């Protein structure tokens, strides 16, 4: 695995200081699949947690939950995965399951019950995992445009890193952009065509989100890793 600690330090510094007393939410997304946004999100979460901050890594790829799988598969690098706990402080979540399920006694099954969080190693790093095994035939999951979950989580953690599926797979990043302090667009370092990231930038801005800049995911030598205002 490429060591991205230096790039994560530069990326984190480039995002600027957090507002006093307010947790920060940072979303990472690429325009196209395969650009490495999930790797950057995971390594950024790991880097920030190593500084002593409490960090939650929220995986928006709900049906696959790859972040939980990757972190759990490499305890020598990330630490041993802890037991599941509720991933919502107040019962709210950023998605809805439709049609809603019911418990064995007929009560509505809360959406929050589908999402767990696991502590990773001894650091203050937590990762989410969607309980796909609880879904029943015919149920679907939809990201919802509501600030409630994010405002609730801010009261309990210091940094929230959101790993969004690429825009060619999902509109989740655009839907949630207004509730993020910053969205970072990730592009493979050898990708010369920035038209797709430019369109994504415009879509996020049009939805009320803030694009902090572009991060070039280093696979070979290339442009500096983080450049504000790179998109015209």
Structural class, by secondary structure, is: alpha/beta
The chain-level mean pLDDT equals 90
**Proportion of beta-strand residues:** 25-35%
Number of helices: 7
In helices, the fraction of residues equals 25-40%
Second rung of CATH, namely the architecture: 3-Layer(aba) Sandwich
Low-confidence stretches: 219-232
Number of domains: 1
The main sheet orders its strands as 3-5-6-2-8-1-9-10-11
Order of helices and strands: HEHEHHEEEEEHEHEHEE
The coarse silhouette is globular
CATH-defined fold name: Rossmann fold
CATH class: Alpha Beta
| Estimated radius of gyration | 17 Å
Description of the structure:
The chain has 232 residues and is an alpha/beta fold. The chain has a single domain, classed as P-loop containing nucleotide triphosphate hydrolases (Rossmann fold). The strands form two sheets. A nine-stranded mixed β-sheet has the order 3-5-6-2-8-1-9-10-11, with helices on both faces. The chain has a two-stranded antiparallel sheet with strand order 4-7. Strand 5 and strand 6 form a beta hairpin. Helix 1 crosses helix 2. It is globular and about 55 Å long. The two termini are 32 Å apart.
Summarize the structure.
The chain is of the alpha/beta class. It has helices spanning 5-14, 37-50, 66-73, 75-78, 148-154, 172-176, 195-206; strands at residues 24-29, 55-59, 81-86, 95-98, 115-120, 125-130, 140-143, 159-163, 182-188, 211-217, 226-227.
Keywords:
232 residues; nine-stranded mixed β-sheet; alpha/beta; 25% strand; two-stranded antiparallel sheet
């Amino acid at each position: 695995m490429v060591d991205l600690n230096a790039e994560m330090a530069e990326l984190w510094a480039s995002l600027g200081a957090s507002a006093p007393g307010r947790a920060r939410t940072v979303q990472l997304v690429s325009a196209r699949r395969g650009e490495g946004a999930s790797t950057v999100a995971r390594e950024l979460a790991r880097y920030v947690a190593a500084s002593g901050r409490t960090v939650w890594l929220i995986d928006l790829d709900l049906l696959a939950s790859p972040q939980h799988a990757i972190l759990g598969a490499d305890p020598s690098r990330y630490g041993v995965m802890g037991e599941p706990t509720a991933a919502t402080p107040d019962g709210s979540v950023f998605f809805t399951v439709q049609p809603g399920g019911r418990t064995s006694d007929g009560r509505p099954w809360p959406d929050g019950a589908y999402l767990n969080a696991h502590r990773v190693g001894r650091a203050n790093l937590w990762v989410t995992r969607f309980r796909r095994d609880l879904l029943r035939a015919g149920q679907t999951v939809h990201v919802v445009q509501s600030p409630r979950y994010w405002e609730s989580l801010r009261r309990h953690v210091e940094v929230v890193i959101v790993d969004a599926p690429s825009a060619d797979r999902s509109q989740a990043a655009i839907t949630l952009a207004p509730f993020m302090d910053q969205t970072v667009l990730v592009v493979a370092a050898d990708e010369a065509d920035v038209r797709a990231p430019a369109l994504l930038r415009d879509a996020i801005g049009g939805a009320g989100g803030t694009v902090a800049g572009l991060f070039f995911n280093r696979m070979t030598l290339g442009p500096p890793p983080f450049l504000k205002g790179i998109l015209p």
